[in-house]
């Protein structure tokens, strides 16, 4: 399905404004979002706070995946797998520190 035919299909749907197409490395996915979220997303883009819907979704997904990897790594280190005193100290510090991952 080409970008134009996808846009026509989206426009034909009754709740087309609730769909957002995101492209990651050339792969497009359709994401169904609640109307309130789409409204906020569009307001952010319209105000110049973001370049596009896709850029906001890409940043949010990247942040979420990075956060989950960090939590998983901290859990592995906290489980005692490979007792390394330097890493144990680092783990305690990191696990009690709020992470600003942006």
Describe the structure.
- With 102 residues, the protein is mainly alpha-helical.
- It has helices spanning 3-12, 35-46, 53-78, 85-95; strands spanning 19-24, 27-32.
- A two-stranded antiparallel ribbon has the order 1-2.
- β1 and β2 (27-32) form a beta hairpin.
Series of H and E elements: HEEHHH
Number of helices: 4
State the share of residues found in helices, binned by percent: 55-70%
Taking the sheet with the most strands, its summary is:
2 strands, antiparallel
Strand residues, percent: 5-15%
Strand order of the largest sheet: 1-2
Q: Could you name the ranges where pLDDT drops below 50 across 5 or more consecutive residues?
A: none
* Shape category: elongated
The secondary structure category is: mainly alpha
Report the radius of gyration as a whole number of Å: 20 Å
Q: Span between N and C termini?
A: 35 Å
Total DSSP E strands: 2
Kindly state the mean pLDDT as a whole number? 78
State the assembly state of the protein chains. single chain
């Amino acid at each position: 399905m080409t970008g134009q035919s996808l846009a026509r299909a989206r426009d034909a749907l009754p709740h087309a404004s609730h769909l957002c197409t995101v492209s990651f490395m050339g792969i497009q996915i359709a994401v169904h979002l609640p109307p309130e979220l789409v409204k906020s997303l569009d307001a952010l883009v319209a105000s110049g706070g973001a370049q596009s819907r896709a850029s906001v979704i890409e940043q949010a997904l990247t942040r979420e995946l990075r956060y989950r990897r960090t939590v998983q790594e901290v859990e592995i280190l906290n489980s005692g797998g490979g007792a390394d005193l330097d890493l144990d100290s680092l783990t305690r510090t990191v696990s009690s520190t709020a992470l600003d991952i942006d």
